[in-house]
């Protein structure tokens, strides 16, 4: 199970997943190639670079695709969330024997308060279109 932030639900992520499943899809973003050195991450990163320029965001060092991950982690830690709560959400190993040996069942619902502690600024939120507003090229 995956914990999903309310903002992603509001823009239609679950409707997107439902539509993909009806078509027999297995990937969240099937249009991203799985080939190449970095797989779909490389394609998404290149797309983001084009998008940020079209959106008027031109600072090269501060606005790479990975900046979202960095911002998410920093926002939670600066807000007082324990690094031990953030680490499993972003795929970092906890380095604790408690995590690696004794924590057998990981309940995604338990992570929801940590995910919801993240607040996306309105200046960024307005750049994200709702799922139903996106048209796909065939």
Helix content: 40-55%
Number of strands: 0
Mean pLDDT: 77
Strand content: under 5%
Derived structural class: mainly alpha
Largest sheet, in brief, is: none
Q: Termini distance?
A: 31 Å
Oligomeric form: single chain
- Number of contiguous helices: 8
Spans where pLDDT lies below 50 across 5 or more residues: none
**C-alpha-based Rg, rounded:** 17 Å
Which series of helices and strands comes N to C?
HHHHHHHH
Rough outline = globular
Describe the structure.
With 138 residues, the protein is mainly α. It is built from eight helices and no strands. It has helices at residues 6-10, 13-22, 40-54, 67-78, 83-90, 97-102, 112-116, 122-125. The radius of gyration is 17 Å and the shape is globular. It starts with 5 loop residues before the first helix and ends in a 13-residue tail after the last helix. 2% of the residues are buried. The mean pLDDT is 77.
List the SSEs and their pairings.
Elements: H1 6-10, H2 13-22, H3 40-54, H4 67-78, H5 83-90, H6 97-102, H7 112-116, H8 122-125
Salient structural properties:
138 residues; mainly alpha; 47% helix; globular
Can you give me a brief rundown of this structure?
With 138 residues, this protein is mostly helical. It is 47% helix and 0% strand.
């Amino acid at each position: 199970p995956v914990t999903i932030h309310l903002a992603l639900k509001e823009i239609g992520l679950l409707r997107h997943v439902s539509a993909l499943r009806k078509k027999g899809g297995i990937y969240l973003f099937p249009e991203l190639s799985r080939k190449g050195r970095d797989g779909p991450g490389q394609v998404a990163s290149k797309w983001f670079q084009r998008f940020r320029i079209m959106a008027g965001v031109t600072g090269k060092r501060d606005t790479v695709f990975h900046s979202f991950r960095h911002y998410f982690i920093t926002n939670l830690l600066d807000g007082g969330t324990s690094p031990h709560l953030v680490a499993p959400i972003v795929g970092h190993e906890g380095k604790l024997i408690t995590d690696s040996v004794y924590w057998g069942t990981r309940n995604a619902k338990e992570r929801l308060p940590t995910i919801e502690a993240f607040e996306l600024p309105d200046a960024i939120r307005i750049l994200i279109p709702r799922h139903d507003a996106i048209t796909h090229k065939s």
